Amino acid sequence: MASMQVQKETTLDDHFNSAKQWQNGTVATMHNQTRSSMSLDRYMNWSGIPAATGSFPSTIPANGAANFTHLRDGHFGSVGGVQYSGFNATGMKCAWIVAWQAPVENDPPLPPNRVYVTCGPKTVMDAMTWHQILMKLDTSPTDDSESDSSAKISVDAHIHDDIPNSATLLVNFNLIP
Hints:
The chain has helices at 12-17, 122-127, 130-137, and strands at residues 25-33, 38-47, 49-50, 59-60, 64-71, 78-87, 93-102, 114-121, 143-148, 153-163, 166-175. It has 177 residues and is mostly beta strands. The strands form 2 sheets. Strands 3-5-1-11-10-9 form a 6-stranded mixed β-sheet, with no helix packed on it. The protein has a 5-stranded antiparallel β-sheet with strand order 4-2-6-7-8.
């Protein structure tokens, strides 16, 4: 008598555990290309948390850089946002916002890696809600840039799968001459 093989039903967890492009989080480097240090104003962890210290860098030195790793949470991956503030060349208080999305796997049905950036006078950036930022992030590309000609500042960011098992996020906070 031939033996009958029972096929195990594939669950969503099985699908994610066998993913070819499993992302454990986002590895970020933020470059402050302004003449003053920048301070963390606020942040949002929609999915995931910062590794190690459990927080984002509190400051980014003038003409310096700061790094963080944002670990994924569940099947939604690493989805977060930060706002840093500093001064433009004329002494105006300004703010720069970056939000990112790096799903667990970069295959449908999950959305691809995305990044959204904006900048401007601090009062204007403070008025943006995290919900508004998330809605913009949902339709953003993997490369984004924004400038505010009146404040003479800009920001650009890129999120890609450059290293194994993580998305790489590179951000530049700039002054416009």
